[in-house]
């Protein structure tokens, strides 16, 4: 194992695969090192006003290692004691949907961290887990040199599978949740295996982490009619993703699986961002794009049929309309071993 920061104990796997990005606080004096740490937190977590506390040592130490898991971030962080504040002045109101519009699932492996987020106050110790909101004013104080591992989820991804979470004022506690403990173990496994995983595997791993978070959060949420509709749409979305390879997948088969009429199914999605048919098409196109980028993915026709398209010409038309490139252009780039082509999804 290669040690990122020996004084405070972050460890990351040193393999022939992709290495994590790493940061370490630097500077000739305490002020410079704390300013450096503030910049690191802004780059890897959220923006904080960082200052020394009565417990901050003469030589402050801080280090971060970050791995990309699909559209999630797995971040290891360790530091000496310090005080951090994230007030409204540091929360960009334009960040809705931006890099700070995240929910963090955090596991503390060492030390003590006091957190004041909105109306709640927490004292986090080794073994504790917490879900935090990147758009909430927050104050933290590290009492003992600490080490934590955090999965950063885009808020939109979490609310897509757990819409009721967006309707409550405070995040639910996760202490005692078996699914939360399982997600902690899953994070540790990801940190070890990620260097050897290809792009498609990391996308699948991100989806699995999202499902584990949903399982941890949902039991603590209240239910009402709007939330029930959102939860059913999320469940249907999971059903669609699990049956994309079935060419007969469509509104009729989905309605039959959920014992509702096709009309009721369409009504369920009338206030959603996309119709059920568009959701199916979008998920199929996304899976096709992943396989087209894999050198061993197969021919364009094989990929189209694999993910439920029954007409290769129709697939090529809808793919180009969605991404601005033909499937053959993406495929040829992958087979030639060139830098991956980057289609731009239409809006």
CATH superfamily of the largest domain: Jelly Rolls
Give me the number of helical elements. Answer: 11
Task: Please estimate the helix content.
Answer: 25-40%
| CATH architecture classification of the largest domain | Sandwich
Order of helices and strands: EEEHEEEEEEEEHHHHHHHHHH
Q: Biggest β-sheet: count, sense, barrel?
A: 9 strands, antiparallel
Oligomerization: single chain
The overall pLDDT average reads: 85
The low-confidence parts are 1-17
How many domains?
2
Rg, rounded, reads 22 Å
The secondary structure category is alpha+beta
User: In one word, what is the shape?
Assistant: globular
Overall CATH class of the largest domain? Mainly Beta
Give me the count of strands. 11
What proportion of the residues form beta strands (DSSP E)? 15-25%
Q: In angstroms, what separates the terminal alpha carbons?
A: 44 Å
